[in-house]
Design goal:
Radius of gyration: 23 Å
Bound molecules: adenosine monophosphate, magnesium ion
Order of helices and strands: HEEEHHEEEEEEHEEHHHEEHHHHHHHHHH
Distance between the termini: 38 Å
Length: 491
């Protein structure tokens, strides 16, 4: 490293580029576009510390320039990754059209993280798009991904958002922005689909071996590693989707290019958290058929995993028929696997440690009641964990009282006293989630008035979602009307 680079690197980047050392067909070199006047909007100092970065010594101007991609760190090698994907069921060749991967940063504890600029300009995969992103959607991803992290759900992280000083044209003129995304990797189901679609079996093996090594190293010596790999990815996705369902998170665009092999939640577009419980909830304005509705998420994940399994067929067995048979059998385990994660999660939400055969029915009857009475999903569970059930008209409903009596009886058969059960419940049922109307309010203040105070207050509360602080009450309140809430992809 020369002295200029050393200076640039006083913040502690340690880049490696194993992905771009794989085959050339996996990516295209890319360069972040020139940004007119970068300005730092938000910086995740806690995450920076976890990554081993020391941002204290650098000026806001230098940070803005860096996070706008104007000052690349030594050792980075910017690329756009190639991938394909099934979007709303249809197959397309895609690739990073508005994201540039700097490489992999190695943290002091030896962990490897992709560092990616989202919204940094056109790449070889931009097709008709401008490669840019607007401030609102980038802040939205920052918010929701960090809220998911605080909830304990596997997710990509957000390190910074800057505005570029350039205008982005969508339906209106918007401020251009770049999000710095931190991920275990950006390898997707769609990455495998891309290589498989090219019929390149050699590189399919290269990609599978690389991914196993990076995310499932325990399988490296397994005699049937590719099948075990499939099984392990299935397991992580089953666990992940169960976590989404348990907090009412609706991803919105579960295309195969938005499903990470690492098992992290990725690509926060038109996602949102459900308020009033309704299994049909859809927020995305482009999801007319409700393909990615709340209730469909587990089955869609399995559909995506079937597409993943198909790519692995040539690696699983030389005899295609046999490979398909084995993979189909493994995929067939998914519903039961998911159901186990979900039901165990529901048991925890209801404070139950033991397993009883009627537990599923107990959960389902609560869901039916929430659906019927339009009860708030988050507050219902949090309410049950309170020492005194909150007073609300709907709790006087005889159906609820009947359910509540059953649940209390069920709790009495647990080994823990109810006070301990409730305390345990408060550790798994969030008090605050990023409610749509609060998120919109914060984004509006930031976008329209350059006022970040609303956003920072919300972020502060979301950092400890299981705790009730002096500020929580405002953020626990559901919106008065959520029925017409729609989210947009922000592309
Ligand atoms: P997403 O909806 O963010 O998952 O993106 C789907 C595909 O569209 C990906 O290949 C993106 O890279 C691409 N894309 C989204 N927005 C843009 C844009 N503004 N310019 C170029 N490509 C884009
Ligand atoms: Mg995507």
């Amino acid at each position: 490293m020369n002295s200029e680079n050393l200076e640039k690197n006083q913040i502690g980047w340690r880049f490696d580029n194993t992905y771009s050392r794989l085959d050339d067909s996996f990516f295209a070199p890319a360069t972040p576009a020139t940004a007119k006047s970068p300005r730092l909007v938000i910086l995740n100092r806690r995450l920076a510390v976890d990554l081993g970065l020391d941002l204290n010594g650098i000026s806001p101007e230098a940070a803005a320039s860096f996070f706008a991609g104007q000052d690349l760190p030594p050792g980075s090698q910017p690329i756009a990754q190639a991938y394909a994907g099934h979007q709303f069921g249809g197959f397309t060749m895609l690739g990073d059209g508005r994201a540039i991967l700097l490489g992999e940063h190695l943290s002091p504890t030896g962990r490897r993280f992709d560092i990616q600029f989202k919204g940094a300009g056109r790449t070889a995969f931009s097709r008709g798009g401008d490669g840019y992103a607007a401030l609102g959607p980038m802040l939205r991803e920052y918010f929701i991904s960090e809220a998911m992290f605080a909830l304990g759900i596997p997710t990509t992280r957000s390190l910074a958002v800057v505005t570029t000083g350039d205008t982005v044209y969508r339906q209106t003129r918007l401020q251009g922005a770049i999000l710095t995304r931190v991920a275990a990797s950006h390898i997707r189901v769609g990455t495998f689909e891309y290589v498989a679609a090219r019929g390149d079996e050699t590189n399919l093996r290269v990609l599978a071996d690389y991914t196993i090594n990076r995310h499932y190293p325990e399988l490296a010596d397994s005699p049937n590693r590719y099948l075990d790999f499939f099984r392990a990815v299935l397991d992580r996705q089953a666990a992940l989707i169960a976590r989404w369902q348990l907090v009412g998170f609706i991803h919105g665009v579960m295309n195969t290019d938005n499903m990470a092999i690492s098992g992290e939640t990725i690509d926060y577009g038109p996602c949102a958290f459900m308020n009033a419980y309704s299994a049909d909830t859809v927020f995305s304005s482009i999801d007319h058929a409700g393909r990615y509705a709340y209730r469909n998420q587990p089955a869609i994940a399995q559909w995506n995993l079937a597409r993943f399994g198909e790519t692995l067929i040539p690696l699983i067995d030389q005899e295609q028929k046999k490979a398909i048979e084995i993979a189909t059998e493994v995929l067939g385990d998914y519903p039961a696997l998911y159901q186990r994660y979900w039901l165990n999660g529901m048991r925890s939400k209801l404070g139950l440690q033991a397993t009883e055969s009627d537990d599923l029915e107990l959960v389902q009857s609560l869901q039916a009641w929430m659906q019927k009475s339009k009860a708030d999903f988050t507050n219902t569970f949090r309410g049950l964990s309170a020492d005194v059930l909150p007073t609300a008209d709907r709790y006087t409903d005889p159906d609820f009282q009947e359910w509540h009596a059953k649940w209390q009886q069920r709790c009495s058969r647990e080994s823990q006293p109810i006070t301990v059960i409730r305390a345990d419940m408060r550790r798994v049922n969030p008090a605050v989630i990023p409610r749509n109307h609060r998120v919109e309010e914060a984004l509006f203040a930031a976008e329209e008035n350059n006022d970040l105070s609303v956003l920072n207050r919300l972020l502060d509360v979301l950092k400890a979602p299981y705790e009730v602080g002096p500020d929580s009450a405002t953020y626990q309140e559901p919106p008065t009307d959520d029925g017409s809430y729609r989210t947009f992809c922000g592309t």
